Each structure stands twice: as C-alpha cells, then as structure tokens.
C-alpha cells in the first residue's frame, strides 16, 4: 500500500522509534537478483530469524549463510527432499492422510444433508497428520483425521442439519486432539512468546529412542528409512562411522531440525490448500477445467472406478494441475515476503542502503498480483541484474489480479506444457536460501487437489456466508503473516 501511495517500487518505513528504517522492495527482477546473485551483500534478517530462536534455537532457519553450521544443518536433512524419498516415503503417507480427509468430508456431506459446513479446520488437521507421518512414525492413535472420521461414521444425524434454511451451516462434534499433536499446534500458534515444550521434547525423544534401537540392529532391513527422522539418524550413523565416534542422536540440532520440518511443513501447507479450496469454489470454471484435466490424466482410475494412487499422482504430468497449483501458491500469499539484511553498504535501484538495513522483498502487491509501479531505467539496476535480463520469463501484468492458471501454460506445436517462469513468484524464495521444503509443499498440494477434486465438487458459498468466510480468512491470514515472513527460507 505504501509503495502504491508513493508511486515507487522502493520505499522506506519507520517501524520502531530510534531504530533504522526498513526498506520495502516490490519489484521481482531486483528481488530475484538479490536472492540469486547478491548473496554476499544480503543475508538472513536477524529480526525475523530471532522469531524462531526461542522455539527452535538450533534450526538453520535463523542462521546466516556465513555461519558454517548453516550448510551442515541443511546437509543433515537434505535427503528428505530427494525425489526418491518424496515419491517412495513421503507420498504414500501424505496420500493416506488426505484420503482420511476424503472420508471425513464424505461423512460430513452425509450428515449435512445439503447444508454447508466449514472445511478449514479439517484441512488444517489433515495437513498435520500428513507432515507428522512424513517426519515421525505415525500410529493410528496419533491420526487426528482418522479419529474424526470414526466419530462421524458412528453418528446417525446432526440436529442443525434439519434447519429449514438450507444455507445454515452445520456444526459437527470434534474429537479431542492427542497430546503430542496438540503441543505442536500450541507451539506454532504462540511463536511470538515461546518457551520450550516438555511435551514436544518428550515426543521427539521417545521417537528417537525407538528409531535408535532399530538402527543399532545388525539387520540391514531395519536400516531402511521409513520417515524423515530415520533418514536423519541414518545420516548421523554413517557420519559417526566415518569419524570413528559414537553416533549422537539426542542432540539439540536433530531435535530442532525435525521440529522445524514439522512446523514449517504444516501450517503453511494447510493455509495454502485452504485458500486453494476457496479460490476454486469462487472460480467454478477453473475447477471444472481442472477436474476434466484430472479425468483425462488418470484414465486407468476412471476405467477401474477408483481414485488415482499415490504412485500415479507422483508420476503423471498434468500441465493444468501444475498451473493451478502455482496460481494458488501465488494468490494465497501464504508467505507475504522475504526479509534480508544488508551485510555491507550497498546500492538498491540507485538508493544508498547502509549496512544493517532490513530489506523486505515483497511477494505480493505491485509486480506480483497487481501491475508494476512505473518503469525502472536499466541504468538504475545492479550490474548483475542487467546482465541477467534475458534469463527470466516475460509476462503481461494486465491481468495479474485475476485467478488465471492459464498464465502458467505455454503451447508449442499444439502441445501444452507447464512453465514455472511464466509469472513472478517469490513464495519459496530463490538461491541458496530458497525454501528447503519446496518440493514437499508441491507434492502435498498436488495430492490434496487430486484427491479432493476427484471426490467432491466445491460449490460456491451462499451470499450470506461469503462475507463471514472472507472476514474469517482475512483474520487468519493477518495473524499468520505476523510470523510467516521468511519461514520458507
């Protein structure tokens, strides 16, 4: 808003008394240049990194790249984002969690008898089940969504569903959340005044002890990674053997990197998916086109009257599905921007930026979901930005405010393909600090879109509920933005 008010892609704001101003940049090319090619000039903002230090003090998210531990910590968890691990370990667990969500919505649709019902909490809990199962061994008693499905399956009717007003929402009974998942939700909702959680520590310690017992076995089959925690412990075991020392399993580093995967991979994914459901219900033509693309993309599932398998979803390329995902990620604005600090005195679009200045690289507003502000002369850009001019995509900003997956589709010889450079996107960051979990986020969103749209039609909200739902989303989005700046990187 300030950039538009001052008609400039770069502005400064005075946030706190007696402190340096923040510089706000709403321009994709220059932001891309900072993250890809000016990493010695700009690094992690301490102000935003400190948000996480009270909760996960030894997680790489708050470390600067000059810290030798940054790369070491990333290496510790890097295998959990390889295609093999994602497809063979993560995908089946994510698939199972969201199949349970299909079951919950099937029961709710039965009990609602045509009435609408809230879906955001269900998505929130299913996303928690999904990321929990990817990181830790998830037992049936730990699945929040399965417990809810069982409760609803045992319910014969809901009183509110008998209301004569068909637009009256139905409220369902909720199962209590088990202690360990509940502690995760409490911690992620309280980042701004965080201590440690004994419940969280006990949960991770117990899981580590069980895994350590398996990895100490001489049986090779016991060393197969069944979740991200196993993968991290296997890496530590291999390092200990190389260095001729005892493996160190119960370290602060392992605790914090595991828990960091949990909180970063849960709330952000569920928020994006929930916005995706809202956008698709508001744009029925896009939903219809996507469903048709899914039906065409999984012909075996159609023939056999079943939903696509996890393996089919991972291995099938459907350009319009990829395009819709990217459009949802851009328009949901789960991460509103990325924070950097100037490590040296430098220049940005012709303006002197003193060392220590916080720079916010916005991923929304002008040049992203609105037309850019003015035209920046090339000579005001950095040398590296000018040299890279021909290496980025080009797009028409005229319709940037619309929900339009087609913008990510290119055609050549009549064949459609997905082009991730068709529009500016900074949600996951770029360069060496780019989002570690980007592949996981795409996989989760892909699975949830396929399963939910295969089994349900997301209908438009009645007018009486539209305003309330929008207000509810704004409140949730505003709260989440207070700590999500830069959570991905």
Concise synopsis of the structure shown:
The chain is α+β, with helices and mostly antiparallel strands and 489 residues long.
Structural notes for this entry:
The structure is a single chain. With 489 residues, this protein is α+β, with helices and mostly antiparallel strands. It folds into 2 domains: 2-37 and 337-418, no CATH class; 78-333 and 435-484, Cytochrome p450 (Orthogonal Bundle), CATH 1.10.630. It has 18 helices and 9 strands. The strands form 3 sheets. Strands 1-2-7-4-3 form a 5-stranded mixed sheet. A hairpin with an 8-residue loop joins strand 1 (10-13) and strand 2 (22-25). Helix 6 packs antiparallel against helix 11, helix 9 packs across helix 10 and helix 11 (252-282) crosses helix 15. The longest helix is centred in the middle third of the chain and has 31 residues, at 252-282. It holds the Pfam family p450. GO terms for molecular function: heme binding; iron ion binding; monooxygenase activity; oxidoreductase activity, acting on paired donors, with incorporation or reduction of molecular oxygen. Its cofactor is heme. Heme binds at residue 435.
Structural key phrases:
489 residues; five-stranded mixed beta sheet; Cyt_P450_CS; oxidoreductase; Cytochrome p450; iron ion binding; disordered C terminus; 18 helices; single chain; 50% helix; alpha+beta
What's the CATH class of the largest domain, please?
Mainly Alpha
Spans where pLDDT lies below 50 across 5 or more residues: 192-196, 473-488
What distance separates the N and C termini? 25 Å
- Protein structure class: alpha+beta
The strand order across the widest sheet is 1-2-7-4-3
Order of helices and strands: HEEHEHHHHHHHHHHHHHEEEEHEEHH
Strand content: 5-15%
- CATH architecture field of the largest domain: Orthogonal Bundle
CATH topology of the largest domain: Cytochrome p450
């Amino acid at each position: 808003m300030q950039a538009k008010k001052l008609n400039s892609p770069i502005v400064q704001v005075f946030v706190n008394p007696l402190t340096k101003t923040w510089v706000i940049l709403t321009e994709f090319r220059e932001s891309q240049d900072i993250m890809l090619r000016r990493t010695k000039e700009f690094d992690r903002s301490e102000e935003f990194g400190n948000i996480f230090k009270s909760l996960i003090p030894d997680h790489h998210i708050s470390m600067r790249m000059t810290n030798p531990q940054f790369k070491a910590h990333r290496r510790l968890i890097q295998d959990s984002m390889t295609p093999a691990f994602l497809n063979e370990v993560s995908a089946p667990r994510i698939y199972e969690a969201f199949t349970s969500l299909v079951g919950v919505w099937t029961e709710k649709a039965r009990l609602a008898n045509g009435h609408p019902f809230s879906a955001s909490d269900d998505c929130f809990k299913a996303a928690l089940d999904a990321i929990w199962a990817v990181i830790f061994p998830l037992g049936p008693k730990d699945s929040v969504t399965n417990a809810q499905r069982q409760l609803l399956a045992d319910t014969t009717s809901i009183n509110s569903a008998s209301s004569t007003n068909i637009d009256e929402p139905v409220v369902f009974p909720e199962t209590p959340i088990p202690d360990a998942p509940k502690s995760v939700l409490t911690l992620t909702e309280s980042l701004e005044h965080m201590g440690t959680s004994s419940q969280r520590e006990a949960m991770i310690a117990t899981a580590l002890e069980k895994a350590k017992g398996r990895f100490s076995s001489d049986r090779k089959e016991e060393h197969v990674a069944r979740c991200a925690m196993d993968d991290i412990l296997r890496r530590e075991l291999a390092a200990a053997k190389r260095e001729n020392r005892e493996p160190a399993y119960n370290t602060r580093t392992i605790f914090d990197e595991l828990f960091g995967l949990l909180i970063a991979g849960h709330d952000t994914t569920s928020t994006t998916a929930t916005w995706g459901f809202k956008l698709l219900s508001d744009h029925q033509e896009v939903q219809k086109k996507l469903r048709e693309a899914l039906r065409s993309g999984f012909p075996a599932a159609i023939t056999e009257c079943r939903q696509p398998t996890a393996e089919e979803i991972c291995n099938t390329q459907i350009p319009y599905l990829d395009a819709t995902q990217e459009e949802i990620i851009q328009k949901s604005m789960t991460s509103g921007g990325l924070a950097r600090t100037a490590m040296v005195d430098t220049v940005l679009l012709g303006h002197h930026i003193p060392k220590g200045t916080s720079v916010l690289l916005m991923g929304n507003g002008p040049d992203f979901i609105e037309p850019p502000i003015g035209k920046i002369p090339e000579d005001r850009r950095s040398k590296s930005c000018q040299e890279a001019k021909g290496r980025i995509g080009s797009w028409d900003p005229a319709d940037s405010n619309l929900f339009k997956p087609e913008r990510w589709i290119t055609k050549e010889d009549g064949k459609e393909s997905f082009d991730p450079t068709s529009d500016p996107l900074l949600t996951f960051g770029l360069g060496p600090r780019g989002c570690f979990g980007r592949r996981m986020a795409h996989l989760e969103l892909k699975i949830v879109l396929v399963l939910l749209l295969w089994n349900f039609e997301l209908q438009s909200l009645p007018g009486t509920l539209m305003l309330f739902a929008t207000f509810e989303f704004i409140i949730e989005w505003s709260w989440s933005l207070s700590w999500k700046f830069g959570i991905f990187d």
